[in-house]
Amino acid sequence: MIQPSQRLNQLDEGVFQELALEKRKLLASGKDVIDLSVGSPDLPPPPHAMKALVDNASAETSYGYTITGLPEFNQAVAQFYARYGVVLDAEREVLQLQGSQDGLAHLALALVNPGDTVLLPDPGYPIYEGSVRLSGGIPYPIPIDAETLHPNFDLVPKDVLERAKLMILNYPSNPTAAIATVEMFEQIISVARQYDIFIAHDFAYSELIFDNQPAISILSLPGAKEVAVEFNSLSKTFNMAGCRIGYLVGNAEVIGHLRKLKSHIDFGIFLPIQRAAIAALTTEWDGLAPQRAEYMRRRDALCSALSRHGWQIRKPSATMFVWAQTPGGQTSYSFALDLIRHAGVAVTPGSAFGPNGEHHIRMAIVHAPEVLEEAADRIGAYLAIHA
Ligand SMILES: Cc1ncc(COP(=O)(O)O)c(C=O)c1O
């Protein structure tokens, strides 16, 4: 039998597979599971984006290879980024991606040599570590301060900072839902300059920030384009996760490196999807504010209901995730397994996001408030017996 590569063997699949299997078993036995484990938006895309998709899908000329992104897509991204106070050169500073995941999975292959150190948030979205491992790089988890949820560089040894080549960050954060501040980005850029570390910032939740707090693109800071690129996506802002379209913006040289790598890997995105994305990015949509309000209602419904059951949870300021410490100090995996088995609620164990995620779970608020209250009641009933 052919064996997988050592590279592949470094990737983990345990946790998600086992939980998915558990869910399948429960559903097959007629039980009902409220799934809070996956951050796939349940809300509709903008109508003009769906119309552009349908109109273009019925044209015979839409079905060839697109090879690269349409220039209009890059211009649409540049237009959209004006909202963050960032001016982009549409040709050189924008690269279309098959979802930000595509870029996150491949950026390290374009930049990192075997043995290079890459700083990552811990807890952090799993592909950051996966991509570094696939490239042969050495991931170094940056401890995230438990209170501010920002990186604590004082805890990173100087020799690690000296040899680090790349740093990946994510605000608003999945899984912690922390948001960035200008001061934090200033500090990160100053560390990056001092130690010559390039920054890749994942801004996938840029439009899911609550309570009128500002969405800060790292590229809006002076000189940031010299040291940073930023990933963004149509998946969460416009509920187009299944379309697989996103982009990378910022430093033209790094964009060029990823563009070169991608020219060997894929032949572009289906034209109607590109047209739908252009429509989404360039049309003023009055759905964004109600969408934020809906996520806030969901957040409040879940957190308040859990609090009534005695589980106090910090309300997230952003994203579609509630990040919570497991009650009673249970490990995140055994608690998640108990919740799916005994409460019929699927959540993601925090350990899936790195060692610092241990003793936490992540709940995706991808259901209506009433469903989330039902999930909280089920969890409450479980806690009343087991806690
Ligand atoms: C932080 C973060 N970055 C990137 C992605 C990937 O999104 P997409 O590839 O759909 O743009 C996700 C998806 O959940 C995410 O949570």
Question: Briefly, what is this?
Answer:
The protein has 387 residues and is of the alpha/beta class. The protein contains 13 helices and twelve strands.
Structural description of this entry:
With 387 residues, the protein is of the alpha/beta class. Helix 6 links the parallel strand 3 and strand 4. The protein contains 13 helices and twelve strands. The protein is globular. The protein is 41% helix and 14% strand. Strands 2-8-7-6-5-3-4 form a seven-stranded mixed beta sheet, with helices on both faces. The protein has a three-stranded antiparallel beta sheet with strand order 9-12-11. The chain has two domains: 6-44 and 287-386, Aspartate Aminotransferase, domain 1; 47-282, Type I PLP-dependent aspartate aminotransferase-like (Major domain) (Aspartate Aminotransferase, domain 2, 3-Layer(aba) Sandwich). The chain has helices spanning 6-9, 14-28, 47-57, 71-81, 99-111, 127-135, 158-163, 182-195, 252-265, 271-282, 288-308, 332-343, 369-386, and strands at 34-35, 94-97, 117-122, 138-143, 164-170, 198-202, 228-233, 246-250, 321-325, 345-346, 348-349, 360-364. The model has no long low-confidence stretch (mean pLDDT 95). Helix 5 (99-111) runs parallel beside helix 6 (127-135). Bound molecules: pyridoxal-5'-phosphate. The site of pyridoxal-5'-phosphate has 14 residues, from helix 5. Pyridoxal-5'-phosphate binds at residues 39, 99-101, 104, 125, 170, 174, 202, 204, 233, 235, 241, 246.
